[in-house]
Amino acid sequence: MSKVMLIGAGGVAGVAAAKMAQNPDVFEELLIASRTVARCDAIKADIEKRGFAKNGKKTVITTAKLDAMDQAATVAMIRDFQPDLVMNIALPYQDLAIMDACLEAGVSYLDTANYEPPEDAHFEYSWQWAYRQKFEQAGLTAILGCGFDPGVTQVFSAYAQKHYFDEIHTLDILDCNGGDHGYPFATNFNPEINIREVAAKGSYWVADPSGDKPEVPVENRKAFDKGWWVETAPMAIKRVYNFDQVGEKDMYLLHHEELESLGCNLKGIKRIRFFMTFGQSYLTHLKCLENVGMTRIDPVKFNGVEIVPIQFLRALLPDPASLGPRTKGKTNIGCIFEGVKDGKSVRYYVYNVCDHQECYREVGSQAISYTTGVPAMIGAKMFLEGKWTEKGVHTCEEFDPDPFMAELNVQGLPWQENFDPVMVP
To answer: Which of 22, 142, 294, 383 could hold 393 in an S-S bridge, CB 3.0 to 4.6 Å?
Structure first.
């Protein structure tokens, strides 16, 4: 009997729970835990209303109130429920606390985003990679960043490397959201995390800084393992790309966590970039909020009380979990590779197109939560079925991509291939 404890009750957690309920032969029992137990109860009620079942089986779902930063309480709940896996779909600030609890309680771990300290808008794998030896010695598995990007983008990379390339020289990850929710300004996932990510400096990874000729002034270069980070001002690099089933969109270079692990694990890699699309309304509103200090992450005094402006802003913005019924359009997320196979030049593009309204009809979610929650479920399925169980702390490209790629087609995120893609300049 497979049992999973899911920590978190936002839009992504709701999708992951619903997709687990669609696979009751693997996910026999599910505990959903969060500080706001009412949200856990709402997820459970929605799943039960939809009547998900398979071959006469239904996932048994329970809920509980939990502050995941309270390690003792988390350990106690894990020991009481005795899950095979803990899925952390809470805020990335909580990653280390939950990993510590998993080690103490002796259970494996999976998350969708790498650790980010609350006081610093900066994320990297170093904090979680420091747990490698602890998880190995405990005989446990930790799967990091198992959403879409990071997550599926790394599986796409492992698949490309396994089947089509001897060496991958360049990789561009393109994340396009062609959806429209009708609000002047809203974020498709946690507003605090989204705004911190977008407002940060852009960066890309290069193996040889002497061969790189950046088109905008470089603020910093810093050595990293096999290569170098090239840092630019936020939104300094813009491209226009014509996305299948979405159309032509403006996209901007951002820093993103999977660049760090892919720089370590792809053979022959020379450059990795990440681009995300943004509409002008979003960028204009974000700039205004930055200019008046609403995106600050440090506390300020207001009427004698300390508040963090970005957290106050989060309370004012629409809840991403509420965007499903009003969001129309499609997403297109994928990877474009260039490299060599048998001495010949190869270009390859693998991507998924996801429809916001189809996601809403299936699980009551918009596509951004869907494209993160479904891969989280698949990663958990890979672990529970014994396909991704190497001990230690691992990112998704370190496992066999083939069974995960097969599940994407089955679970609602079918992928497409293009062997003559338009490259990003």
So the answer is: 142
Residue 359 counted as domain residue: yes
In 244-384 the beta strands, taken as DSSP E runs, fall at 247-253, 271-277, 300-302, 305-307, 330-341, 344-355
User: 228 in a domain, yes or no?
Assistant: yes
Residue 44 has pLDDT above 70, yes or no: yes
Q: Is there a domain that residue 117 lies in?
A: no
Q: Is the pLDDT of residue 190 over 80?
A: no
Residue 117 has pLDDT above 70, yes or no: yes
β 85-88/3-7 pair status: parallel
CB atoms within 10 A of CB 370: 31
What is d(CA 3, CA 55) in angstroms, rounded to the nearest whole number? 19
Task: Give the residue-averaged pLDDT of 104-118.
Answer: 93
Q: Would you list the DSSP string of 182-219?
A: S-SS--SS-HHHHHHHHHSPEEEEES-GGG---SS---
Say what the pLDDT of residue 121 is: 64
Place of tokens 């429809």: 355
d(CA 81, CA 3): 8
Q: What is the DSSP string of 254-283?
A: ---THHHHHHHHSTT--EEEEEEE--HHHH
The answer to whether residue 219 sits within a structural domain is yes
